[in-house]
Amino acid sequence: MCLSVPSKVVEIHDDASVTVDTLGVRRRVSSHLMTEPLTEGDFVLIHIGFVMNKIDEKDAQQSLDLYQDIVEKMQLESE
After folding, report:
1. Which of 25, 36, 57, 72 is deepest in the core (most CB within 10 A)?
2. What is the 3-class SS of 10-45, one letter each residue?
3. pLDDT digits (tens, 9 = 90+) for 28-39
């Protein structure tokens, strides 16, 4: 099973790639597999360097909040 953290598109490039922000980490990924256009501010899911699909901002935020809760609980357990 693969888990994908929602990423926010922060820059569109001419070569069908986009720069995304994933929990503060920026990286450039391919959007060649997308059939619909992406715009800055869209939330997407990525698998092995390719944007697989666009997701709703509300759903993305719920997932990001859940990931943050998990990280906080893991930090408390390690203290």
Report:
1. 57
2. EEECCCCEEEEEECCEEEEEECCCCCCCCCCCCEEE
3. 999 999 999 999
